[in-house]
């Protein structure tokens, strides 16, 4: 039996073959070392993270999340629900918060779920994977399996918005959360201090108002460079995608020459635990993390 077992919600981006499938690869590698068992919630559906903000209505979004939570309660009773995607986690956390404290909305959601023979009971806790690592394991336990410290490598821990507000990681400051810095240091790397770790990457503005999103991405990357970072690390698939993919557009708009790799915390952990570049999902990036690839190749 695994040390800890969780009901896993991969979400649309982190499932096999999706845009952040390399995130899932590194999480699986990390969890194998830590003896964490993730059991996928059967027949899960999209969390609906954006439809409530695109005139899709509040109840449909919460009903979609409630269905996932109800499935977990029924099929994986007693297990906490864990998500790797920051948007999925935030969406599910908000639904739990609303349904647990609003009897009318809970009744409406359960009326919808009744059609599928389900009922949301509010029994399952919802956590982001970094919460699991920090709150259920702790930094000392995470350090024990390190066999290949990331010595000499400098990272900017980019938290972004969604794992920071309104819920955040237990005990962390909203203005200056340090959990990513601590994770980097626990893996033997150097966490640089810089002033953009909670700046929004622009989210969906990348499509609707690209000039605004690209300005924010420029500020994030420029600050990371200015403070000596060689790579950026994040817990969010959308932040990872935006900050990596749009560096070319930022360079064209501002005449910069940005080319900094944007990684997931789990990739650093997979490598520090002795995993290969493939096990860490380093082959899934547009901007190659050549220094990490070289590090992974060392015996």
In short:
By secondary structure, the protein is α/β, with parallel strands linked by helices. Helices cover 46% and strands 10% of the residues.
Structure commentary:
The chain is α/β, with parallel strands linked by helices and 299 residues long. The chain folds into 2 domains: 4-130, Glutathione S-transferase Yfyf (Class Pi), Chain A, domain 2 (Up-down Bundle), CATH 1.20.1050.140; 147-297, 3-Layer(aba) Sandwich (Rossmann fold), CATH 3.40.50. 46% of the residues lie in helices and 10% in strands. It contains 14 helices and 8 strands. The protein has helices at 11-14, 21-34, 58-75, 86-101, 103-113, 129-137, 139-143, 179-186, 205-208, 210-226, 237-245, 247-254, 265-272, 290-297; strands spanning 4-9, 36-40, 81-83, 126-128, 154-157, 190-191, 231-234, 262-264. It has a 4-stranded parallel beta sheet with strand order 2-1-3-4. It has a 4-stranded parallel beta sheet with strand order 6-5-7-8, sandwiched between helices. Strand 5 (154-157), helix 8 and strand 6 form a beta-alpha-beta unit. Helix 3 crosses helix 5. The protein starts with a strand and ends with a helix. The relative contact order is 0.14.
List strands and helices in order, with pairings:
Blueprint: E1 4-9, H1 11-14, H2 21-34, E2 36-40, H3 58-75, E3 81-83, H4 86-101, H5 103-113, E4 126-128, H6 129-137, H7 139-143, E5 154-157, H8 179-186, E6 190-191, H9 205-208, H10 210-226, E7 231-234, H11 237-245, H12 247-254, E8 262-264, H13 265-272, H14 290-297
Parallel strand pairs: 1-2, 1-3, 3-4, 5-6, 5-7, 7-8
């Amino acid at each position: 039996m695994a040390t800890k077992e969780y009901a896993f919600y991969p979400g649309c981006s982190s499932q096999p073959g999706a845009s952040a499938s390399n995130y899932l690869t590194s999480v699986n590698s990390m969890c194998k070392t830590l003896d964490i068992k993730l059991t996928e919630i059967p027949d899960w559906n999209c969390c609906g993270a954006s439809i409530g903000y695109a005139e899709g209505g509040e109840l449909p979004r919460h009903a979609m999340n409630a269905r996932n939570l109800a499935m977990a309660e029924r099929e994986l009773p007693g297990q906490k629900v864990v998500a790797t995607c920051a948007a999925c986690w935030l969406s599910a956390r908000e639904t739990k918060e609303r349904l647990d404290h609003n009897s009318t909305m809970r009744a409406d959601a359960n009326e919808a779920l009744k059609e599928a023979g389900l009922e949301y009971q509010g029994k399952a806790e919802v956590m982001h994977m970094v919460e699991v690592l920090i709150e259920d394991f702790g930094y000392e336990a995470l350090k024990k399996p390190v066999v290949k410290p990331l010595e000499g490598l400098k990272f900017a821990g980019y938290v972004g918005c969604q794992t920071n507000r309104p819920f955040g990681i237990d005990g962390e400051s909203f203005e200056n959360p340090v959990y990513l810095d601590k994770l980097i240091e626990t893996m033997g790397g150097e966490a640089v201090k810089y002033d953009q770790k909670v700046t929004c990457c622009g989210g969906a503005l990348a499509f609707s108002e690209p000039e605004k999103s690209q300005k924010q991405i420029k500020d994030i990357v420029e600050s990371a460079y200015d403070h000596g970072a060689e790579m950026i690390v994040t817990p969010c698939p959308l932040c990872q995608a935006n900050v990596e993919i749009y560096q070319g557009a930022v360079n064209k708009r501002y005449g910069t020459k940005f080319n900094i790799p944007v990684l997931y915390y789990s990739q650093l952990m997979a490598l520090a635990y002795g995993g290969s570049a493939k096990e860490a999902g380093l082959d899934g990036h547009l901007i190659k993390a050549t220094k990490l690839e070289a590090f992974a190749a060392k015996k």
